[in-house]
Write a structure and sequence with these properties.
The complex is a heterodimer of chains A (about 475) and B (about 100). Chain A is an alpha/beta fold. Chain A is built from 16 helices and eleven strands. In chain A, strand 10 and strand 11 form a beta hairpin. The longest helix of chain A is centred in the C-terminal third of the chain and has 24 residues. With about 100 residues, chain B is mainly α. In chain B, strand 1 and strand 2 form a beta hairpin. Chain B has a two-stranded antiparallel sheet. The chains are: A alpha/beta (about 475), B mainly alpha (about 100). The interface between A and B is large, with 74 and 50 residues.
Chain lengths: ~475, ~100
């Protein structure tokens, strides 16, 4: 690929080169496979690389393009989080219990990406069953942050974020239950978007907490994220929570609205105590620049401080029920021993990792007789209060800007032995899932220690296009390329 | 709020998880700490608040009850831990 710098590529630039015939998809795919071979032994973002399959798909894409085929992602190599089913590929959720599981069908998002001509490089590492904020809970190995290999990439979609950041793919899919797209995007200096609950079908996504889970894209520009969203969004009869809404043309919309003014709210509670000063300063700098054009206003989300407690009751409760299906009977790992009950108990004891078991225990407790009202019902009521806070804020402003994470990426091992501390690092992303809102993480600065800093944009239900529009404006304002140092 | 080792073992049994003594001890400490944190919620009066189970309210969608063929039956079976011809083998569950 003479004259093409892979590190500088985005999906939209690559599509231009492909369209002009300056590169073909086989060359492009090989370039990413080569980078994976060269540096992924240090980052460990992939669990499984499908070299043969990817090259075959790339050849096919090149043929189709020659025959005049037009498709939104024709020949673009992507990575997929390992809790999303790709037919014929392992789908392990980074768990021993699914170590040998081969997906027998495609998730709806994968079907749609295939129709759009995308290439699948492989499956990315994650916290087991998407439970964690650092990718250290993978049953196989932790992933390292490309900006500093001694630090975590965030989680749970840490593999997808790290692969996008290190240019080991042009974009990726992840899933976000309490911040699992936005926090790793923030830690790795890439764009990560959690769409409105119901905008993207979850058919073929391994369920963790069904009232919170949502699939979304990682990319190296807001434009690319909008393009990926365009392909994967839309109603799907196979997911009963999928919303039958009209889709805007996201990419056109954000381009047409690059000068649109918004009323932007800063929720006071997201900037108080506990957030590292460098993060606050970086966000304030961007907000100040935005203030020249937009109206900035302080708002209040008074129940924010309860969101972690609410989440760590509701998500484990739903998980304990969803994960009941892993019993060693029809698929996955099985310990052959004794009667049926002891097979269940031993299979689950050895198949699940520590954090997954901890959450199953928490969730089972919260749902058990005598505790349901005090925990699950109480949390669901406080969830209403959190949702109403957002409704009130959005009656005053169009969009909100907040931090994504209270800290810069932490070191591997730093929080793993203290589950509560790990949980508290999700404080700014969790409320968005509880309320079902769209949330975008956009990188804005590299810290003095050389680590990425991001801000979060939150919008009302199904105003995903407005969130992305402001995201693109922030990106233009910041005007920095977030390329990690050479590895 | 403390949760005893006996209670931990009872929950583990409901969740079909076998725990070692060491694990049960650890979970008793960790869960107690986390449940303590949940106490925060008690300070809020929610007597007049309706619970939210789904953030985006949707009507239950209905469809005709039609059979649709699932193509990848062999791939499904290939994932089974133990097969006898096309049946999945499990430990005996009926008394003879």
């Amino acid at each position: 690929m003479a004259g093409v710098e892979v590190k500088e590529l985005t999906i939209s630039k690559a599509l231009e080169f492909l369209e002009k015939g300056e590169i073909n998809s086989v060359e492009l795919t090989k370039a990413y496979l080569d980078s994976i071979k060269r540096i992924d032994s240090k980052i460990k973002s992939y669990l499984f690389v499908d070299e043969e399959g990817a090259l075959k798909q790339a050849e096919e894409a090149d043929k189709l393009r020659k025959n005049g085929k037009k498709a939104l992602l024709l020949g673009i190599p992507l990575a997929i989080k390992d809790n999303i089913c790709v037919k014929g590929s392992p789908t392990t959720c980074a768990s021993k219990i699914l170590e040998n599981y081969i997906a027998p069908y495609d998730a709806t998002v994968i079907e749609r990406l295939k129709e759009a001509g995308a290439i699948f490089l492989g499956k990315t590492n994650m916290d087991e069953f998407a439970m964690g904020s650092s990718t250290e809970n993978s049953a196989f190995f932790p992933t390292h942050n490309p900006w500093d290999l001694e630090r975590v990439p965030g989680g749970s979609s840490g593999g997808s974020a790290a692969a996008t950041s290190a240019r080991l793919c042009l974009g990726a899919l992840g899933s976000d239950t309490g911040g699992s797209i936005r926090q790793p995007a923030c830690f790795c200096g890439v764009v990560g978007f959690k769409p409105t609950y119901g905008l993207v079908s979850r058919y073929g996504l391994v369920a963790f907490a069904s009232s919170l889970d949502q699939i979304g894209p990682f990319a190296n520009s807001v434009e690319d994220a909008a393009l990926l969203l365009q392909v994967i969004a839309g109603h799907d009869p196979k997911d009963s929570t999928s919303a039958p809404v009209e889709l805007p043309n996201f990419l056109e919309f954000i381009k047409e609205n690059e000068n649109t003014r918004f009323k932007i709210g800063l929720p006071r509670e997201f900037f108080e105590g506990g957030v590292e000063k460098e993060i606050i300063d970086a966000i304030e700098e961007v907000v100040k620049a935005l203030g020249k054009k937009h109206e900035i206003k302080e708002v209040s989300l008074p129940h924010t401080e309860y969101s972690v407690a609410v989440y760590y009751i509701i998500a484990p409760a739903e998980a304990s029920s969803n994960l009941a299906r892993y019993d060693g009977v029809k698929y996955g790992f099985r310990v052959k021993e004794g009667n049926l009950l002891s097979m269940y108990r031993k299979t689950r004891a050895l198949g699940f990792g520590r954090e997954v078991k901890r959450r199953i225990m928490l969730g089972t407790y919260a749902l058990s007789a005598g505790y349901y009202d005090a925990f699950y019902l109480k949390a669901s009521k406080v969830r209403t209060l959190i949702k109403k806070d957002f409704e009130k804020a959005f009656s005053e402003v169009d969009l909100l800007i907040t931090p994504v994470s209270p800290t810069l990426p932490f070191r591997l091992g730093e929080k793993i032995s203290d589950p509560l501390q790990m949980y508290l690092s999700d404080i700014f992303t969790i409320p968005v899932n509880l309320a079902g809102l769209p949330g975008l993480s956009v990188p804005i600065k590299v810290s003095s220690s050389g680590l990425p800093i991001a801000l979060q944009i939150i919008g009302p239900h199904f105003k995903d296009h407005l969130v992305l529009t402001l995201g693109r404006q922030v990106e233009k304002e910041v005007d920095t390329k977030f390329i990690p140092p050479e590895i | 709020m403390s949760i005893s080792i006996e209670e931990v073992l009872k929950i583990a049994s409901l969740a079909r998880l076998e725990l070692s003594e060491e694990e049960a001890k650890n979970y008793s400490q960790e869960l107690s700490q986390i449940l303590d944190y949940f106490k925060k919620l008690e300070s809020l009066d929610t007597s007049d608040v309706e619970p939210t189970f789904h953030a985006v309210r949707l009507e239950t969608p209905f469809r005709e009850d039609e059979v649709k063929e699932f193509e990848a039956k062999e791939e499904l079976l290939a994932n089974a831990p133990e097969l006898h011809e096309r049946s999945i083998v499990v430990p005996k569950v009926v008394k003879t």
